[in-house]
Amino acid sequence: MAVDAASLLAERTHQARVGGSPERVARVLAALGSPERSFRAIHLTGTNGKTTATLATAALLEAAGVRAGSFTSPHLERVEERIRLGGEEISPSELVSLLERVIRAADASGEEIGYFEALTLAALAGFAEAGVEVAAVEVGIGGLRDATNVLGAEVAVVTSVGLDHTEVLGDTLEEIATDKAAIAASAHTLVSGPVDPGLLPILDSSGARRHLAAGRDWQLVTTPVASGQLLDLASPVGTHRKVHLGLRGPHQGANVATALLATEAALDRRLDDDEVARGLAALAVPGRLELLASAPLVLADGVKNPAGARALRAALDVEPLLVGRSLVVVVGLLAGHDAEEMLAALDVAAARLVVTCAPETPRALPAEVVAEVARAAGAPAVVVGEGVAGSVHLALRETGDADAVVVTGSLYVVGEARSALRCRGRADA
Fold first, then answer.
1. How many CA atoms lie within 13 A of 31 on its CB side?
2. What is the pLDDT of residue 427?
3. DSSP code of 295?
4. Can you give the pLDDT at residue 306?
5. Which CATH number does 290-428 carry?
6. Is 315 in contact with 249 (CB distance < 8 Å)?
7. CA distance 395 to 46
8. Can you give the residue ranges of every domain in the chain?
9. CA nearest neighbour of 301 among 290, 311, 292
């Protein structure tokens, strides 16, 4: 029986090592022949928005004629989603082959590597093997101590700074900004998205020769439309007017703007309008205000902290597709997050119905607990569902012509919901 990547990772990696060690990764990279030296890198971090920015960067590079790779985390349904080569998701057999190489190199080095470290190493080795010219690499957590902080990237991005992973990164925004800024220590350009102005001196002193900060050095205006939004971006490199972006939410506009600026910094030129249009037309970011169905209307957005929940709520308030519709919210959360703050940020009191669920992970909060918090937050009607798939199907049964379903909370919930709706679509076909 052929081994798959998920089984190999479960059997041969240290599951508890979440962020990893750059020193350990560097030692295994040396045993692999230093593949990270064969390509240039754009390194991206942020409390929220870094996956979107990473995928957008790779798409824009490809549109500009550069062979690109991307590494993101976490995945929604399949571990292969994390690594893309030349615009295509890595195949299961390719990933298994790379992981086997990584594990042999780790064994030869006497290193016991973690799950995220193994995937980081596989991505970097895969980029070299596939002839990637520029790789867009997303951190796992923070920056300074993250496994990806072995790149010495020319361009770095900090999409946002908020309170998350405080047990690792620190209890204050200043500590978290300092940790994230570490990825720019050897960069010639750091691009930052909307952050507290008081944090700009920290990012200014990251070590990057140039820092392009949102609001100070570049300006963005977003206009929502039924098919997504239009972006007007002005920066020292030039302007981009009425750029169509299929992603929804002003926060996604800002994330993509950081990607565009990072790409232009890496290529040392303004991308022309056709390149930008091609890149963004090819961009898909699963699970981030994603339209999963239109009849009935179903949107899914994974949020992992209150800042993400507030961004989702703000996006829903201006989304043209939701004008005149009541919301049926399917929500599941993980332990370790403030459920009260999360549901208040989502404004569940404004929903017609809230269906609570628990994704299939030991870290999930029980659906009954989430329901109690939703009732205390003022939700007018709350139902406890059975699993994510059962909760989504319950919500669909309760959805009328004047309603829309929003699936949110943990990315585990969104991943399971996408699978459930895909199965439903096949059954209805």
1. 19
2. 44
3. T
4. 93
5. 3.90.190.20
6. yes
7. 32
8. 5-281, 290-428
9. 290
Contact 248, 229 (CB under 8 A): yes
Are 187 and 155 contacting, i.e. CB atoms less than 8 angstroms apart? Answer: yes
| Block residue for tokens 């990315």 | 411
Nearest to 305 by CA among 266, 337, 352: 337
Assigned fold of 5-281: UDP-N-acetylmuramoyl-L-alanine:D-glutamate ligase (3.40.1190)
Enumerate long-range contacts of 93-99, CB under 8 Å, 24 or more apart. 94/126, 95/5, 95/122, 95/126, 96/2, 96/3, 96/4, 96/5, 96/8, 98/122, 98/125, 98/126, 98/129, 99/5, 99/8, 99/9, 99/12
Residues paired with residue 40 on neighbouring β-strands, in sequence order: 134
Strand partners, 70: 84, 136
Average pLDDT by consecutive 10-residue portion of the chain (429 residues)? Answer: 84 74 96 98 97 98 98 95 96 97 96 95 98 98 94 97 83 95 97 97 98 98 95 96 96 98 98 97 94 93 93 95 96 93 97 97 96 98 96 95 95 95 60
Rounded to the nearest 10 degrees, how much is the dihedral formed by the CA atoms of 163, 168, 172, 178? -100
